[in-house]
Amino acid sequence: MSAEPREPSPQPFRPFDRLSSERIYDSRWCGLRKDWIRLPDGHEQDYHVFEVDDAIVVVPVFPDGDIALLWQYRYVHGKTHWEVPAGRIAPGEAPEAAALRELAEEAGCTTKRLVRLPGFYPINGISPHYAHAFVALDCEPNDGPAPERSEQITVHRFREAEVRALLAAGEIADGFTALALFYYLASAHSRR
Questions:
Q1: Which option is the CATH number for 55-186: 3.10.360.10, 3.90.79.10, 3.40.50.10420, 3.10.310.10?
Q2: Domain extents for the chain?
Q3: Which residues are CB-neighbours of 101 under 8 A, at least 6 positions away?
């Protein structure tokens, strides 16, 4: 089944002129800068930009079609919810290598079939932060998860229909996870 032809996207807008930039905050986790920009109508204004390293998100799929989901606690909002492995890309690290590393660390799996899914900007109104998305097909368990000290994670296997039901019920609140799962389930790699 092929998609209906559609009109091409309009031409992109011309980027704003950046007049100056000031560092507000820096840490090993994130940065904040204040830019002064000129709008197309000539007005000038400030624009705060949140900086964080690009990330990966990976959907682990076993040979039988089961999908691994993590039951993970998140300190920033104090809740535990369903996620797939995700994390930042280390300086100099390829997105594929980061995906394999996070798959092993968080889901306790390995794969030889890592396939790109569409990537996305999760917070593009305030940051150039970009998420590279993947599906890891034919996953095999390895030595088990090795989460960081601040991570509380358990790994669970779900049938594809169960994951679809969780998404339909709004029970997957993590944006990285929901979008990566939607991209995977819409792809030709999903068994449906």
A1: 3.90.79.10
A2: 17-51, 55-186
A3: 87, 93
Q: 180 with 186: CB under 8 angstroms?
A: no
- The whole-model pTM stands at 0.90
What's the half-sphere exposure (Cβ side, CA atoms, 13 Å) at 32? Answer: 5
28-72 pLDDT, tens digit per residue, is: 999 999 999 999 999 999 999 999 999 999 999 999 999 999 999
What residues contact 157, with CB distance under 8 A and at least 6 apart?
Answer: 62, 66, 67, 68, 69
Q: Is 85 exposed, middle or buried (0-12, 13-18, 19+ CB in 10 A)?
A: buried
Alpha-carbon span 151 to 76, nearest angstrom: 12
Q: Give the integer Cα–Cα distance in Å for 64 and 79.
A: 31
Q: What angle do CA 88, 31, 120 make, to 5 degrees?
A: 45
CB 102, CB 177: distance < 8 Å:
no
**Farthest CA pair distance, the chain:** 59
